[in-house]
Write a structure and sequence with these properties.
Largest sheet: 7 strands, antiparallel
Distance between the termini: 31 Å
Number of domains: 2
Structural class: mainly beta
Shape: globular
Amino acid sequence: MTRTAGILVITLAIAASCEAQVTMSGTANLKGQVTMGGPGRSLETWSDQMRKVTLAVGRISKDEVNVDHFQTGGVAIIIVDESNHFFVATAKHVFENAQDNWFPESLRFRGWRDEQTSRYRDFGTEIKLRQGGRPLYTASSSFDLAIIPATQELLDRIETEPHRVLALNSENFANEVSTYEGEDLIVLGYPGLIGEEYQQRALMRSGVVAWTDPTGAADHEFLIDARIFRGNSGGPVFSTPSGVDRNGSISTGRKVKLLGLVSKTINAKPDAAFGVALPTDAMVIGAAGVGVIEPAKELISLMKSAEGQTH
C-alpha cells in the first residue's frame, strides 16, 4: 500500500489460479475527514472483485400477487476519478430512452452485500436522476454511456470493510493494447429471461470479443460474442486473468481490465443469407448472440466532464 497526499491507496491482488492475478483499486475522501479506500477482502473466488463493483439497477414494482419488491432492470458499476470522487456508471438508456418514453425521476441500486437480503425487504438505495427537469447525470454525446455521482448512502451499502469501497479507476480501463478480437471476456448482468428468482445475484456469462473497429479498438463501440438480453444493459464486460493473448498464445497472470459496458444486443433478422427467409415467429431476442459494447475509455472523459460541471 502507498500513501500519497494524505490518501491511503490500497491495491489488492487475488490469485485466480496458481499464477493469475486480479488488481482493482479505488479511494475517496468521504464523511468529512474519513478516508475511504478500496477494495478490501475477497470472498470465495477471483470473480468476486468483479461482483463487488457491480450494481443492480431497478425500481419498486408489484409482483404477480401485488406485493412490492425491488425489480431489476439494468446494471451499473462503481468508478472513481483522479480526485477520488465516486460515480455510478451505466448505459445512458438506463437513465433516459426517448424511444420507450423512459425518463425516470430516480432509480434504485443494490450491491454485492445485498445478495443475502430479500428484494422484498430491501428496495435498494434511491438516487435522484433529475432535479427541476434538469438531468443530474453526465451523458456521453458519442456513446450509450452516462455517469452520476454516487451518494454516501450507496457507498455505505457496498463497503467491503468500514470506510473501504471497491471501485474501478482509469488504470482498470482497457486501452488499445488490451482490447482485441478473440479476447476472452466475462459479462455480468441480470437478464430478465432467466426469471426473477435468479436475479438476486448477478449472472456471469463468458464470451469473446468478436469485432473491433480497425481505426481504434478502445475508441469505438465493439462487438462481443456472448448471450446478453434485456437486463444486461449497462453491465460490465471484463477481460479474464487467463486466456488467448494478442499473439494467439495462452497467457496467465494478466490484470483484469474493464473492456466496456453493455449497450444492446443485435437481434436475429428475418432475412438470412442468400435470400432465405426465416419464419418471423422463430425470431428470438438476442439470437444472433452478438452484443454491442461501449468502450470503457469513454468513462474517463465523462468523469472529467462531470468534475468540470461541479466547479
